[in-house]
Amino acid sequence: MNATHAFAGLGATPFPPDIQDHLAGLNFEAAGAEKRKQEAESPVLELSGISLSFGGVAALSDVDLSVRRGEIRSIIGPNGAGKSSLINVISGVYRPDRGEVQIAGKRYAQVPTQKLARLGLARTFQNLALFKGLSVLDNVVSGRAHTFRSTFLGQIAGLGRSRREETDARDRASRVLEFLHLSDLSDRLAGTLPYGLQKRVELARALVAEPDLLLLDEPMAGMTATEKDEMAGFVSGVRDQYGTTVVLIEHDIGVVMGLSDRIAVLDYGRKIADGTPDEIQRDQRVIDAYLGVAAENEDGEGI
Ligand SMILES: Nc1ncnc2c1ncn2[C@@H]1O[C@H](COP(=O)(O)OP(=O)(O)OP(=O)(O)O)[C@@H](O)[C@H]1O
Ligand SMILES: [Mg+2]
After folding, report:
1. What pLDDT digit, counting tens, does each position of 255-289 carry?
2. Is the four-CA dihedral 55, 61, 62, 66 of positive or negative sign?
3. Is 152 in the pocket of ligand 1 (CB under 6 A)?
4. What is the value of pTM for the model shown?
5. Which ligand 1 atom sits closest to the C-alpha of 77?
6. Which atom of ligand 1 is nearest to the CA of 266?
7. DSSP 193-260
8. Which residue is closest in CA terms to ligand 1's atom 6?
9. Residue 209 Cα, ligand 2 centroid: separation in angstroms?
10. Sign of the torsion formed by the C-alpha atoms of 166, 167, 172 and 174
11. Which listed ligand is nearest to 77 at the C-alpha?
């Protein structure tokens, strides 16, 4: 349907001929499709010129990073390379000394960390950050706290909106637990679970916020090979089934190469390479700085 037909359908008085010509020249459908295409292709996240130091230590130096919608974007590098610092900048824990973060096209000198969920971001931490004395289900429900609008008094009374919100949060949490094969453990205290399962509960808590962009800081650290395989399956499942964009920090090179669409490599706070797994594997700077050391690690667990 072109513009003139659209207006004619409303039975409006015909426009003067010059305006009709102008409207006929506008192709709204094509313009809409083009806009949707641009939105799909525009980066979900874009970091430009990020620098951050702690005292004399340059944790990040002039780092650029672009993350496309729906990709699994990994960040690798030796210990102390600045990977967690980068996630802490993206999630607003740190304000960079220089540079800016763009999330869905909006620019920030420091991302408002208290509004992270509303910006469509969720994260997990390198070190477990669960409420160990709460059940698995309650831990996951806590990932929806940002959606609760009921008042404190309403919550005490347990009435109306607060009860509906809680039921909704529990339903969503149960579905995520099912997706991550954790349903049988939902009543267990989180602190009593083996480490690998606690990491999975942390992923559940991040996922229940239904983020557009999920930031995972070493979700497989300390896991057995089987647990790692399972976790890798869940990470790709999150992307494939929910369309979630994933930024992944991981030391296990085998896992990273298998999962990632693109990989950025940090070394001493600088980005030394960025590309597809194939490109990264062949990059001499990466081999020197990182992969050579990882290859020396006989059991293939990375460094
Ligand atoms: N809060 C902080 N205070 C002081 N120095 C910090 C802080 N956070 C990070 N650093 C320093 O910044 C550098 C980068 O640290 P970061 O934790 O980002 O590295 P990483 O790549 O995540 O390492 P790892 O693989 O060991 O987790 C290191 O030298 C670290 O000691
Ligand atoms: Mg780290």
Report:
1. 999 999 999 999 999 999 999 999 999 999 888 87
2. negative
3. no
4. 0.82
5. 21
6. 21
7. S-HHHHHHHHHHHHHTT--SEEEEESTTTT--HHHHHHHHHHHHHHHHHH--EEEEE-S-HHHHHHH-
8. 54
9. 23
10. positive
11. 1
Indicate the burial class of 87 (C-beta count within 10 angstroms; 0-12, 13-18, 19 or more): buried
For residue 54, the CA-to-ligand 1 centroid distance in Å is 9
Rounded mean pLDDT of the chain?
Answer: 85
Contact 15, 23 (CB under 8 A): yes
Ranges of beta strands (E only) in 13-170 are 45-54, 57-67, 72-76, 98-103, 106-108, 121-123
Residue 3 CB coordination number (10 Å): 17
9 residue type, one letter: G
Tell me the best of 50, 51, 52, 57 to mutate to test the pocket of ligand 1, counting ligand atoms within 8 Å of each CB and taking the most: 57
- What strands lie across the sheet with 262-267, from one edge to the other? 121-123, 213-217, 245-249, 72-76, 262-267, 270-275
CA–centroid distance, 235 to ligand 2, in Å, is 19
Cα 180 from Cα 83, distance rounded (Å): 26
Tokens for 36, please give them: 């949707």
Ligand 1 centroid, distance to 79 Cα (angstroms): 8
User: What tokens does 158 get?
Assistant: 């347990």
Token couple for 223: 């896991």
Nearest CA to ligand 1 atom 16: 82
Q: Tell me which H or E stretch contains 272.
A: strand 270-275
CA angle 52, 54, 58 (to 5 degrees): 55
Burial per residue of 20-57, b for 16 or more beta-carbon CB atoms within 10 angstroms, e otherwise: eeebeeeeeeeeeeeeeeeeeeebbbbbeebbbeeeee
Tens of pLDDT, residue by residue over 67-124, are: 999 999 999 999 999 999 999 999 999 999 999 999 988 999 999 998 999 999 999 9
Q: Shortest CA distance to 210 belongs to which of 274, 146, 288?
A: 146
Q: Is 244 within 8 Å of 213 (Cβ atoms)?
A: yes
Distance 88 CA to ligand 2 centre (A): 10
